Q: What sequence folds into this?
């Protein structure tokens, strides 16, 4: 299998993406400790591909090639490069997927019709936790209760969750949040969720989910993994007992499945999903898209095909909400598409401490935060993301989902819901809030929605940056007088994006010296401890590595985190003080 670019779902506390999120692509032969890596910032080629060409020129790699113009025929561009094979074209961005030898990459990047070349690598998505469940068996999920049509009003008095109260959604449902006392539940508003699929037969959805599949490795639009179902129900779930409601329980969700039933997805799959939303946005009246997913390789938004597709949807009046990620305060925590895009609404994780009061709120320690490569502060706001209870997928065959098996202890007593944590859950909260705002004022544009959510967000104890907490009631009140639709995000450093232009602008200056100086991709980064021969077979990630056995309790017994294994810079003692990850604090 060719080397491809990774996708990570930000599902439950601290995924294995902490290990893999910024170092997921490795050439077949890692450099020795004495190898000097020399990168060329003027080359239209991602540094990992440059690295691979230096140490493994004969190896094959799968890449995403961006063209300078959409009218260029991909096969004609490819014809000039030896041994290059085109496998797929995209419509949301002028780009195609191709396989070729590392040795041919320089010629491809030098082609005047090529804008940029980036890797496309695979990863199996693993639920995020340091307290791995060790492969426990989950009970067979019970049959769903008969689906019921949504009620005209949603009574929050029987809820067993606090996040609808914390976010202000309950005030919207009862009409207390708007001046005209009109109830906002997301009715007649459609949002898309690009994820691992959805179990649309659950009574929590009651016919308010349309599921489509764009992953060629799956024959069903169902959710064998379980992440997408949990995320979708945070947006519009409404169980028959009135105990678990999403933020916008009357909204319609279109689930676009990009991952297979083990949670494996590629950047090309994500682009295919974004393509589908772009092509069908008018037919299905899609107004927002939730992306609780991230590329596994850092990139400037100006050269990322995913970010280009995101901005294309933004310009087409589709608001894009992205999870910030679960990398905490690591220096590269917010360098990954699509959360790094300046236009996307990037959402971090608020720990509401399972109480409605805000006095005990704090930022989830795993919530990615910082400054992107291009100088933009992220996230834009935060929303509840710790111990969020939402719908549990029954799997594609009724035998249970991967998430349900991995986290059997977190399944609720009714057997139909599960507790997960992470910025995936937080992003869904904001997507639900957008549905409520659009029901109140259908004409709001993405720029106005983003400004409303940010300007109405509230401070909370210990807030470390500009990102306030989601406040739906305040946003609804402010929506009567929205700001201008003209919006250009301003970076802390660097250059603001050109308003209304394509993000894919290549001028060489995007390669910040501190990042692209070679040290990131030198032997100290790919030094063998991450890419040991036992785990990397030269062309792919061995399935046995991702079968769960590698992440069993024996792996997380502390010995792997000895000082000799980590240099301390990423895993500062203040971050790993044990109290952060105690079972009583994070599960």
A:
């Amino acid at each position: 299998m060719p080397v491809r670019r990774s996708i990570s779902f930000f599902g439950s506390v601290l995924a294995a993406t902490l290990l893999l999120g910024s170092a997921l692509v490795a050439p077949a032969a890692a450099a020795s400790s004495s190898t000097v890596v020399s990168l060329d910032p003027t080359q239209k080629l991602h540094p990992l591909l440059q690295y691979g060409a230096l140490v493994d020129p004969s190896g094959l790699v799968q890449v995403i090639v961006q063209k300078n113009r959409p009218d260029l025929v991909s096969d004609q561009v490819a014809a000039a490069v030896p041994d290059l094979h085109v496998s797929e074209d995209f419509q949301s961005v002028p780009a195609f997927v191709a396989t070729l030898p590392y040795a041919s990459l320089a010629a491809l990047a030098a082609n005047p019709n090529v804008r940029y070349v980036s890797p496309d690598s695979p990863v199996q998505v693993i639920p995020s936790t340091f307290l791995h469940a060790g492969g426990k068996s989950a009970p067979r999920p019970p049959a769903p209760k008969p689906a019921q049509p949504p009620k005209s009003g949603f009574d929050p008095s029987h809820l067993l969750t606090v996040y609808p109260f914390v976010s202000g959604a309950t005030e919207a449902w009862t009409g207390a949040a708007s001046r005209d006392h009109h109830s906002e539940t997301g009715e007649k508003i459609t949002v898309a969720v690009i994820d691992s699929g959805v179990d649309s037969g659950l009574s929590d959805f009651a016919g308010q989910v349309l599921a489509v599949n764009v992953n060629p490795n799956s024959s069903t639009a169902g959710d064998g993994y379980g992440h997408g179902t949990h995320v979708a129900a945070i947006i519009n779930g409404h169980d028959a007992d009135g105990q678990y409601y999403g933020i916008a329980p009357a909204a319609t969700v279109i689930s676009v499945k990009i991952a297979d039933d083990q949670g494996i997805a590629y950047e090309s799959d994500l682009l295919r999903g974004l393509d589908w939303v772009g092509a069908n946005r008018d037919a299905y009246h899609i107004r927002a898209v939730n992306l609780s997913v991230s590329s596994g390789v850092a990139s400037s938004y100006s050269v990322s095909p995913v970010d280009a597709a995101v901005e294309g949807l933004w310009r087409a009046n589709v608001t894009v909400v992205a999870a910030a990620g679960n990398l905490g305060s690591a220096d590269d925590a917010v360098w990954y598409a699509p959360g790094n895009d300046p236009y996307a609404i990037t959402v971090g994780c608020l720990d509401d401490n399972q109480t409605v009061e805000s006095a005990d709120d704090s930022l989830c320690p795993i919530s990615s935060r910082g400054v992107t490569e291009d100088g933009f502060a992220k996230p834009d706001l935060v929303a509840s993301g710790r111990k969020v209870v939402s719908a549990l997928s029954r799997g594609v065959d009724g035998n249970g989902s991967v998430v349900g098996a991995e986290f059997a202890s977190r399944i609720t007593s009714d057997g139909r819901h599960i507790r997960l944590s992470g910025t995936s859950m937080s992003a869904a909260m904001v997507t639900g809030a957008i549905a409520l705002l659009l029901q109140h004022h259908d004409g709001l544009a993405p720029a106005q929605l983003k400004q409303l959510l940010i300007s109405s967000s509230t401070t909370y104890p210990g807030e470390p940056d500009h990102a306030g907490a989601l406040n739906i009631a305040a946003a609804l009140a402010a929506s009567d007088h929205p700001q201008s639709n003209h919006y250009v995000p301003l970076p802390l450093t660097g250059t603001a994006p050109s308003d209304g232009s394509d993000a894919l602008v290549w001028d060489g200056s995007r390669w910040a010296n501190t990042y692209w100086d070679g040290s990131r991709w030198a032997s100290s980064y790919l030094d063998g401890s991450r890419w040991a021969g036992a785990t990397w077979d030269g062309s792919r990630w061995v399935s046995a590595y991702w079968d769960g056995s590698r992440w069993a309790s024996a792996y997380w017994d502390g010995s792997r985190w000895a000082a000799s294994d980590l240099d301390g810079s990423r895993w500062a003692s203040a971050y790993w003080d044990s109290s952060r990850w105690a079972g009583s604090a994070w599960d």
The radius of gyration is 22 Å. DSSP finds 13 helices and 20 strands in the chain. The first strand starts at residue 7 and ends at 9.
